[in-house]
């Protein structure tokens, strides 16, 4: 695997410009929510293993949170890795989920943007032991970093943790508006195929468009913001996507026509899979692993809707009854944010009797790789989708937000590794989907999932496309550093 190979190489490796060259210093700046921080920590760790100096702008609500000690311990092994706190301007206890994400966008513009400018202006990140910044790798939803960094002569590379297909879909929104496919009308046919996304003409329906597109006014501020951010990425030095060529080739081919400097390097979490480097910011509960150890091979449905999904009380109850009525054992992650304001049945709080186990968090990558896990009921977030693909676990998708609507369609219609139950939440539908995944079409889904998992693992192995792209990215940053120092 790449990480192991890189560790061996770095012991005796010197840069092409000479062994006395100062290593690159990269500033990594994630969007301040847990899933985005997690995946960019993986990228930052790869750079650390490659000998880079890293400054990671950690959101202050995470740095002051109860799980930061775990993150700090993970990166203590890298003496050139440094955390720098930055505020998103919201109270520490703000949920940063669901409909309230809009508040986060607004607060970043007011608070985080000037903070970022001041960090660069003060030169506080450089010292006798730390070189000037070579480049900035920022979350693609924060394109303001491009202009600010340009004022200081620092190149910006944007990282998008979305699927390539979602990125391309958002890029095509102006064309959809021009063609009259957006905004939606009150009587819009949600099952109509979308015609003006090149490469996706026979794949995406109206209901599969990103959640931001479900508006009746093309001037909707949130839609305009995400589309503007997507197009603004063309002004960056380059673009990084956490996916693989074999998974999203149609979208990637179109993206390259607009972003010739594109690094497709995923699945990022897979580089660490042999080392079992946990990346969750939540407490790792071992009781669920012990419970899984007692279950038959590929018999358990793992249920997790991520850290930004918020269920209504009735939705939670319908999922619960559907799971129980399916008769399949299940492991359900029910964090506090998922049930905000919900009236939870006593049976759910106590665990679900003989058929299931309910926890407030679980080590997701480890659960998905467990021999007892046979299916994954998920919100279809990109990190979760890639993790499930990598482990060859079929999925049931119930998307909630952002790119999840696109991802769930790919899972069912393109990759054929699961069921998309988008826009429906009743106990009979849940029960039917679980039975279809774990019983009726079990062998079909397992075969498709195994085939795609093989492609994912090959891509990050020596000779694979993502492996090669990651190597190019590292070399290009070293060349940036050399250019800056001459």
From TrEMBL:
An example Gene Ontology molecular-function term: quercetin 3-O-glucosyltransferase activity
Region (Disordered): 1-21
InterPro entries the UniProt entry points to: UDP_glucos_trans (IPR002213), UDP_glycos_trans_CS (IPR035595)
EC number: 2.4.1.-
Keywords: Glycosyltransferase, Transferase
Pfam families named in the record: UDPGT (PF00201)
Family matches, as PANTHER family: GLUCOSYL/GLUCURONOSYL TRANSFERASES, GLYCOSYLTRANSFERASE
Family statement drawn from the similarity comment of this UniProt entry: Belongs to the UDP-glycosyltransferase family.
Name of the protein this chain belongs to: Glycosyltransferase
The organism of origin for this protein: Sesamum indicum (Oriental sesame)
Organism classification: Eukaryota, Viridiplantae, Streptophyta, Embryophyta, Tracheophyta
